[in-house]
């Protein structure tokens, strides 16, 4: 049997008897996993963490920690600790004493305090900084002290509320890798809150995508990216092209959709669909190719080919983002520069192009209809 670390059952939080910040959320988080709550600002992520930590009580619903109901248990008696965005270090204590703080409160013997703090200093690679005051540390170092301080009391769950938001992009990438390493080393459950999809995607075992107090989709990073349940998830996690229309014909593994913007197009039937049904399909721009020449479909492969004119190009070094006008509508196509040929004639603004993709590379948005195809 799997061990569950944190389980939320139908948890709702209503503030001031009127505002529902968290709406009937159920979550099962396994022992030792790296779990992320991802969603736009104000969607209820922090409120969920505060309920797990014990700073707020749910209005309805239940929370268990390691199999025990914790509603009513005060925060300091829960085996949970939190790392906040603003670090919340004690400015008048040096690094060592910041980390030692909770152990001193519990009046642990001096040799034990020294041993535990030293272990955390090794883990977070703060050697050489123990005597420094918080004001003498860089942002990344402060964050590492906050993590060490939260871990020193050996919680079974670590809550991290946008811990990297105050750092610049390069440092954030670096700290993400460090967090991943720390997680591997301590082996406890991490619940990570962020509004940044790339952060959540890169380190999580599972991601819960939230909006307006609700969990919209829960899955692995691969699942939420490749098969989003609705337009909100598809848009929030990366960029995409949408096709909306009625199913005209169903044939083997494909169906023909009469799309509002591009006419009839074949899509892969990853869900059971029926003729006449209105559905929405998502096609990621990196799956779409832009060429001057008409593509030739290999034997047995279904291609969709549209003719258009390049409307916009954004050169990003590693890739170019194209927007191609097809009649009155637009498609996005991202071209990865895997090679750079100096004699290649670069596709640019106003060029006549073919826009094409493998029919298998799209996904029916689950919530727009259809039922999963039986395995
Ligand atoms: N103590 C509170 N009283 C009233 N409203 C609150 C309180 N705490 C949070 N909220 C509201 O609940 C919603 C969710 O907040 P929060 O959980 O902080 O979102 P997130 O962390 O996803 O940005 C917001 O609209 C916020 O204004
Ligand atoms: Mg928040």
UniProtKB/TrEMBL annotation:
Record text on subunit structure and interactions: The complex is composed of two ATP-binding proteins (PotA), two transmembrane proteins (PotB and PotC) and a solute-binding protein (PotD).
Pfam name, any one: ABC_tran
Protein task: Part of the ABC transporter complex PotABCD involved in spermidine/putrescine import. Responsible for energy coupling to the transport system.
Span of domain ABC transporter: 6-237
Source organism superkingdom: Bacteria
Catalytic activity: ATP + H2O + polyamine-[polyamine-binding protein]Side 1 = ADP + phosphate + polyamineSide 2 + [polyamine-binding protein]Side 1
Gene encoding the protein: potA
Keyword Transport in record: yes
Species this chain originates from: Mesotoga prima MesG1.Ag.4.2
E.C. no: 7.6.2.11
Gene Ontology MF annotations: ABC-type putrescine transporter activity; ATP binding; ATP hydrolysis activity
This protein's UniProt keywords: ATP-binding, Cell membrane, Membrane, Nucleotide-binding, Translocase, Transport
InterPro entries, alphabetized: AAA+_ATPase, ABC_SmlMolc_Importer, ABC_transporter-like_ATP-bd, ABC_transporter-like_CS, Mo/tungstate-bd_C_term_dom, P-loop_NTPase, PotA-like, PotA_ATP-bd
CDD domains in the record: ABC_PotA_N
Entry's family note: Belongs to the ABC transporter superfamily. Spermidine/putrescine importer (TC 3.A.1.11.1) family.
GO CC term, one of those recorded: ATP-binding cassette (ABC) transporter complex
Name the record gives this protein: Spermidine/putrescine import ATP-binding protein PotA
